Amino acid sequence: MFKKILIANRGEIACRVMKTAKKMGIRTVAVYSEADKDSMHVLMADEAVCIGPAASKESYLVIDKIIDACKATGAEAVHPGYGFLSENEEFSRRLEDNGVIFIGPKHYSVAAMGDKIASKKLAQEARVNTIPGYNAEIVDSAQAVEIAKGIGYPVMIKASAGGGGKGLRVAFNDKEAFEGFEACRNEARNSFGDDRVFIEKFVEGPHHIEIQVIADSFGNTVYLLERECSIQRRHQKVLEEAPSPFIDDSIRKAMGEQAVALAKAVNYQSAGTVEFVVGSDKSFYFLEMNTRLQVEHPVTEMITGVDLVELMIRVAAGETLPFTQDDIKPNGWAIECRINAEDPFRGFLPSVGRLVKYRPPETIDGQVRVDTGVFEGGEISMYYDSMIAKLICHGATRDQAISRMRDALNAFVIRGIDSNIPFQAALMQNPRFLSGVFTTAFIAEEYPSGFVATDVVHDDPGLLAALAAFGRRRYIDRAVQVSGQMPGHQRKVGSEWVVQMEGKDYPVVVTPIPGGYSVTHGADRYDLVSDWKFGELVFRGTCNGTPICLQLERIGLLYRVVHFGKQVKATVMTANAARMLALMPKKLPPDLSKFLLSPMPGLLREVSVIAGQQVSAGEKLAVIEAMKMENVLKAELDCKVKKVVAAPGESLSVDQVIIEFE
């Protein structure tokens, strides 16, 4: 077995690999960019080597620097994680040439499956179902349009070396095919250094199902069941589960056997994932093979009891698989939510900055797991992807797994940046998701106008008001106990209060009960019992005898309550104070309609207009790059450009002015 391995990655996956390596008694080496010098994976490693500036193309993507780090530290093997160089054939081959073992498949398998065009041809030879499409390299946008018309819309435009939703577009007409080809090629060139693009038919009513395989160097190949990955936004997975509520045993077996056949066809060794698109009629077609560990591998680990990272290390060290296909039996259900640094209420735009508060839910063996690579006080950088953590919950049934996920999301505290936790919490309440009947179009169909605050509806707003009143009353009761008050002038605490929340008044009566307060709003009564104290962000207790978990905190004169993704900021005051406040004039917000503001921090790649230009609604105004994704800003109305304020190449902050209109 190896004595020391280097992890050629960063963030949560680097930390994840290190945990297993340490469990196995293997020393670890971290590599890091200048932006990551204080990151968690650097602190966790036994040794760490700086490999360059923040930009990944100058650090994490530079093969020579990784090899030099191996030589300097004596690392015998390299685990690539996912992303970066994990599916780079040259990286695998050059490590081998330098006497360093790649903890993953051999370079020839990476080459065969890493190119989507070549892998599709190999899949056809291995008698794996494939989607109709054009598998040769496409020269330009005009040719892309002609090919798309020949296949028939809708079509999927994909970068040959793409992954993670980058370099992928769905086109429904000639215009989208033309623009999509250029966008895919640009993203692929920037992210992977390979701008080849191909086109295939887009399957109607699709499910995204993937089969996890593991193979050793002795010809043993096993599939570890499937993962349901259909809940996606912009072709990027949002949450995953295993097993799939859509797949039956016969389809599972057929897909698994085809995945194994494909792996054997390229003499595959290590963990890998064969992705399929499954139509509404349960016909399934090969999409691609990811020759690496997947982001969503924990759900497979939770239902099979295997440690995929440990298996990868053991296979790379020349060991055989410790089980056969007959030994793999599903145990319960697992769901993973990706917790990303993005604002779901602003089109999921990236959110960067300091993690002022970061308190993941408590891990519970076999029930709640948190894979993360950040810590409180750390910084979310604009240079890398937006993932903060992966929250994985397991249950005996799908309903139990969902219930545990709801509670875990309620207890997940993030402050200082925005996160997609409200969106994940909303999904856990969505009737269609709960039914298990959905496709990859789920998010687009359920939230056609984007995700907005009104999509997060709490079924009992009176409870939120009661909790705000609980917080206020506990604060007042603490305040009246301060010593040194003048006799006869002590504050007398009344029981009648008004909670102002989201433009509505909630008159409540608050009376002490053992361990808490009874809050009455109209005909509703909430007996809240908890030992919650100020400074604690998570409120645990009971409401009318039923356990409850949520977030409650005092912010100046406001009380923030977060429950099931719903967040409110409430003001709690006496009835007389509420009447006085209603008489105060309201200040109107400034008119910003004549400015194009940057919706996120990022790099201004392009300004598409000039001063004096007449612009039509829907026309491209600017392109901002953040977290390895291009974001196109378009005009909402017909307008005329008065002044271009920001220049291409400039680093933008949130709400910085880019263009002024007349």
Automatic annotation (TrEMBL):
<feature type="domain" description="Biotin carboxylation">
    <location>
        <begin position="1"/>
        <end position="448"/>
    </location>
</feature>
<dbReference type="InterPro" id="IPR016185">
    <property type="entry name" value="PreATP-grasp_dom_sf"/>
</dbReference>
<dbReference type="GO" id="GO:0005524">
    <property type="term" value="F:ATP binding"/>
</dbReference>
<keyword id="KW-0464">Manganese</keyword>
<keyword id="KW-0460">Magnesium</keyword>
<dbReference type="Pfam" id="PF00364">
    <property type="entry name" value="Biotin_lipoyl"/>
</dbReference>
<dbReference type="GO" id="GO:2001295">
    <property type="term" value="P:malonyl-CoA biosynthetic process"/>
</dbReference>
<keyword id="KW-0443">Lipid metabolism</keyword>
<dbReference type="InterPro" id="IPR001882">
    <property type="entry name" value="Biotin_BS"/>
</dbReference>
<protein>
    <recommendedName>
        <fullName>Biotin carboxylase</fullName>
        <ecNumber>6.4.1.3</ecNumber>
    </recommendedName>
</protein>
<dbReference type="InterPro" id="IPR041265">
    <property type="entry name" value="PCC_BT"/>
</dbReference>
<dbReference type="Pfam" id="PF00289">
    <property type="entry name" value="Biotin_carb_N"/>
</dbReference>
<dbReference type="Pfam" id="PF02785">
    <property type="entry name" value="Biotin_carb_C"/>
</dbReference>
<keyword id="KW-0092">Biotin</keyword>
<comment type="pathway">
    <text>Metabolic intermediate metabolism; propanoyl-CoA degradation; succinyl-CoA from propanoyl-CoA: step 1/3.</text>
</comment>
<dbReference type="InterPro" id="IPR005481">
    <property type="entry name" value="BC-like_N"/>
</dbReference>
<dbReference type="InterPro" id="IPR011764">
    <property type="entry name" value="Biotin_carboxylation_dom"/>
</dbReference>
<keyword id="KW-0479">Metal-binding</keyword>
<dbReference type="Pfam" id="PF18140">
    <property type="entry name" value="PCC_BT"/>
</dbReference>
<dbReference type="InterPro" id="IPR011761">
    <property type="entry name" value="ATP-grasp"/>
</dbReference>
<dbReference type="InterPro" id="IPR005482">
    <property type="entry name" value="Biotin_COase_C"/>
</dbReference>
<dbReference type="InterPro" id="IPR011053">
    <property type="entry name" value="Single_hybrid_motif"/>
</dbReference>
<keyword id="KW-0547">Nucleotide-binding</keyword>
<dbReference type="GO" id="GO:0004658">
    <property type="term" value="F:propionyl-CoA carboxylase activity"/>
</dbReference>
<dbReference type="InterPro" id="IPR050856">
    <property type="entry name" value="Biotin_carboxylase_complex"/>
</dbReference>
<dbReference type="Pfam" id="PF02786">
    <property type="entry name" value="CPSase_L_D2"/>
</dbReference>
<dbReference type="GO" id="GO:0016042">
    <property type="term" value="P:lipid catabolic process"/>
</dbReference>
<feature type="domain" description="Lipoyl-binding">
    <location>
        <begin position="583"/>
        <end position="662"/>
    </location>
</feature>
<keyword id="KW-0442">Lipid degradation</keyword>
<keyword id="KW-0067">ATP-binding</keyword>
<dbReference type="GO" id="GO:0046872">
    <property type="term" value="F:metal ion binding"/>
</dbReference>
<keyword id="KW-0436">Ligase</keyword>
<dbReference type="InterPro" id="IPR005479">
    <property type="entry name" value="CPAse_ATP-bd"/>
</dbReference>
<dbReference type="InterPro" id="IPR000089">
    <property type="entry name" value="Biotin_lipoyl"/>
</dbReference>
<feature type="domain" description="ATP-grasp">
    <location>
        <begin position="120"/>
        <end position="317"/>
    </location>
</feature>
<dbReference type="InterPro" id="IPR004549">
    <property type="entry name" value="Acetyl_CoA_COase_biotin_COase"/>
</dbReference>
<dbReference type="InterPro" id="IPR011054">
    <property type="entry name" value="Rudment_hybrid_motif"/>
</dbReference>
